[in-house]
Design brief:
About 13% of the residues have low confidence. The two termini are 38 Å apart. The chain has a domain of 80 residues. It has 134 residues and is α+β, with helices and mostly antiparallel strands. It is globular and about 35 Å long.
Length: 134
């Protein structure tokens, strides 16, 4: 069993944004009075979930391009870039699995300076991605 880690500020922010931006379907049914005898309720079809949109980056954020993408999102906030230091970036987004991209302090400095940085993600679900910033 793995050790439970708390969420980082970035992970919390991304998760909150995705939760706020995700679609919610609400089904309301009402019984109508009429002269007919009651019948058994018909089952409501289960709606397909609406995929959560990609959060809109704010000024100063850097959005990475994810190769062979199927829902992953790679965003480094402007605040995190200003903070500097190494970063372990979770790129789950709306995918059904996660990948992590390890960025060194030098990578973060380069990205903040608009230099191109390409890194391979961890291999999960039998594949990996290359994430390219700038």
């Amino acid at each position: 069993m793995s050790e439970d880690k708390g969420l980082s500020r970035r992970e919390f922010t991304v998760a909150s944004a995705l939760a706020m931006l995700s679609g919610v379907a609400i089904t309301i049914s009402a019984a109508c009075g009429g002269g007919s005898s009651p019948s058994s309720p018909s089952p409501n079809p289960t709606p397909n979930p609406t995929p959560a949109p990609t959060p809109t980056p704010t000024t100063g954020d850097k959005v990475g391009s994810v190769s062979n993408n199927h829902g992953h999102v790679a965003v480094i906030t402007g605040a995190r870039l200003t903070e500097g230091g190494a970063l372990s970036l979770d790129i789950r987004g709306t995918a059904t699995h996660t990948h992590t991209v390890e960025l060194t302090a030098a990578d973060m400095t380069a990205i903040a300076g608009n230099q191109r940085v390409a890194k391979d993600s961890t291999t999960d679900s039998a594949h990996s991605h290359t994430v390219t910033f700038n």
